[in-house]
Write a structure and sequence with these properties.
Blueprint: H1 12-31, H2 44-68, H3 71-76, H4 85-88, H5 92-107, H6 116-130, H7 132-147
Helix pairs in contact: 1-5, 2-5, 5-6
Length: 149
Amino acid sequence: MKKIKMSVLGIGPVYVLSCLIVTVLSIYISEKGSLNSGEISKLRLIMVFFGILSILLGVTLWLQAVFSQKMVKAIKDNILLTKGVYAVVRNPIYSAFFFVFTGMLFIEANLWLLILPIVFWLYMTILLKLTEEKCLKVFLVKSILYLYE
């Protein structure tokens, strides 16, 4: 039996690019005045603070996941990461982008846009269940079979 290898990118590019497009388009629509009824001008400073905090959290999470944990090397070596940020968050890279996009939406200070992080979370959860978790189960079974050859 041939040794099984995990994908380096996974479903990540699909999730990140689709959420990025929705985030940018939503901010553009908000800036053009189409979502004026959701503006929270009285809380703008607080929203900007939480937006920046969320973006910083996302960037930190991404840096930890990719560089501190040497993610690409671990995947190429067929090693499942379970320490560091991977011990706390199942998918730290997707979560990192989730926090960055949420932060961008918070900075816009519009209630209508705050629906999107819920949509992004649901999308991430469903996408991972339909794709990567199935692949991980197949990978695990094939790896066990490989060990017993």
